[in-house]
Amino acid sequence: MDKILQATADAAWILGEEGHDPLRESSHESRFAISNGFLGVRGARAATGGCRWAIPARTYVAGLFDTSTADGAIPELVPGADWLRVRILLDGKPLVDDPGDLSSHRMTLDMRRGVLLTECLQMNTPAVGVRLRTLRLVSLSERSLGLQLIQLDVEHGEVAVSLEASFEGMNLGLVAERVGQDLGVWRTPHSRKGLAMAAAPSLQVDGDEVPATALGELRWSWTWRSRPGQVACFARSVAVTRSDAPDLDPAADARDKLGAAQRLGWRGVVADHEAAWASRWRCSDVEVEGDPVAQQALRFAAYHLNSAANPADERVSIGARALTGDDYRGHVFWDTEIFLLPFYALTWPEAARALLVYRFHTLDAARAKAARMGWRGALYAWESADTGDEATPEQVIGPDRRVVDVLSGRLEQHISADVAYAVWQYWQATGDETFLLDFGAEILLETARFWASRARVEADGRHHIRGVIGPDEYHEDIDDNAFTNLMARWNIARGLEVVTLMGERWAGRWTQLSSRLGLEDVELKQWRAVADTISTGIDSSTGLIEQFAGYFALEEIDLADYAGRSVPMDVVLGRARTRQSQVIKQADVVALLALLPDEFIGDTAAENFHYYEPRCGHGSSLSRAMHGLVAARLGEPALALRYFHETAAIDLAETHAAIAGGVHIAALGGLWQMAVLGFAGLSIGADGVAIDPKLPASWRSLAFSVQWHGRQLRLRIAQAEQSLEATLEAGEPMTLVVCGTSYALDRDGALHISLREPQNAAA
């Protein structure tokens, strides 16, 4: 067990924490969380101290949603039992009696292996000294499985040792159906979903098995006498399964999964898990030379992104904090499609596909929401849980402790275009025809239909969309938000494009789909009219895009006067004055520049970026990544790098106290986008991959892998040499466009291209 409990030697793969800081403990639990897209476990300490630590470590199960009442209250992710609880007694006294005893405690997240390691040395009594080392994982190979390992090395002393292992917090939002010695089954009170947890613990002392004393209901104990040099090894495997229907019992599946794990043995479980992680890293690692802080941040981002998805479950998506914390009740926002999907589409297409099929399964709920509000097509929930019904609360408590009405559930409608955008990006990245025909086309058409019915033609002959909220949520109930309108136009255009595509390539399927949706030529003609005449907010004389109607007339405020503030600008100014100002919460027009770069030619993008960038207060964790991406593409790598490090600091710097509710998974997706889509300048289309690098001066090199249409491509950009090395590792020959010049790329070997003077271009 010694070797397994040792962290990877390369410090670039390690995130560590020494000692114990009670003020930051909840933030560390988020940062050091482990997950596999089905199970998530926060990074709480391994051993309990007497009865003092009453709050169990949160275990989350994707898709396990319930409401607090049966009358349509807001659904939230329900925590499962803490299956890691261990209490060690020496002569009847707790080994760890108080968190303050953990001065020698070290916690290590080994991102390469996907495991959390802890170690502490207890020498606080003359009678005995012990070293405690632990490992925990949730398997990336078999997502139902969790594993806990503990090794207790006796440095000196002979005492009576007792180890108690238990499950705690078994009824936090769950109702026990039956709980026995090795298996528990619970139900959510209102949604009636089932959760089963089966466990198999064991203990060896100096290689000999020590029998357990059953204490009942997922609780065991072992006793023995210590001696100097003694090694005790505890292992606990757990299998967790979920059922979504009241008449389905998840217990048999849990027992089967646990039985398979026992036959494999915990060493086999570890080996399979590490192999699965090695495979993920081969596809998703980003290597930076010259900036170790950026390197660690990108590894941390990829670790949590790889941990968050489950390609085997098309009924769940990724919440705003993934499976690392309670914030936002586990709800799914536009974050998933806009900030996460690019990573998955280009490094893990199976995961991207599953996330988008989740949106297909919630399409009927989106249709129902649109119909309730008087429109056609599909209007997706701003906050979505398992059913896709709108899950945004109508009121919340604001920073000033006053009740605030939440309008985003009704007015933040760009979510439908965001989902459509992700569908199209996946299609461009993969060419997955089955997905397009079975799922994607219908999403694109129904969201396009929504926008065509939502926009209204007025006396000026243009179509307007009134009464919305854009990404900048400081300004509510506004008209003609540029982001919303231009994304709606883009969505309609893609809907019409898929009509043409299906008619030309899959005429039979198009006949079936158009008949089922009732789509006729007269309606498609109306779509084209909307797309051609929708209000854009673009001033033809200056090229500036007005964020929404009337924005340019609002009060200008110099945000430099508020440098060093520790709260968002709407708290500083108050909600009323903020609404009457040009202060922006997060990227809005800048988000348009990021998502639709081909729409802005010449100097238009730069002019709009430099107009809106100083007006943004970055009151959302999503904002800086969008700004950094655009700055990098515009050839301002120094500014982009500043945004990169500010985004990384959200979850990694100790100056931020806001991650107690979980990591900011969308910001982590934004880090990857800034590196790959920004600094590397990667872009994709149906006909190939393009790259136009603009690295920060401090980055000596940047290397990463992407997948496109069944191909695996490895790219490395060298700063000093101003060169690109491209290797096609798998798949058929393809075209790679470098700084505007096309090259043929095949499996014959690496292609070396000068970024100073491209040559050897394909004809």
Automatic annotation (TrEMBL):
Q: Where is the Glycoside hydrolase family 65 central catalytic domain?
A: 299-673
What GO molecular function annotation could you give as one example from this UniProt entry? glycosyltransferase activity
Q: Where is the signal peptide?
A: none
Instruction: Name the chain's protein.
Output: Glycoside hydrolase family 65 protein
Q: Can the keyword Hydrolase be found in this entry's annotation?
A: yes
Q: Indicate yes or no for the key word Transferase.
A: yes
Single GO BP term: carbohydrate metabolic process
Q: Where is the Glycoside hydrolase family 65 C-terminal domain?
A: 686-745
Glycoside hydrolase family 65 N-terminal domain segment(s): 17-243
- Catalytic machinery residues: E473 (proton donor)
Please, which domain of life does this record's source organism belong to? Answer: Bacteria
Top-down, what is the taxonomic lineage of the species of origin?
Answer: Bacteria, Pseudomonadati, Pseudomonadota, Alphaproteobacteria, Caulobacterales
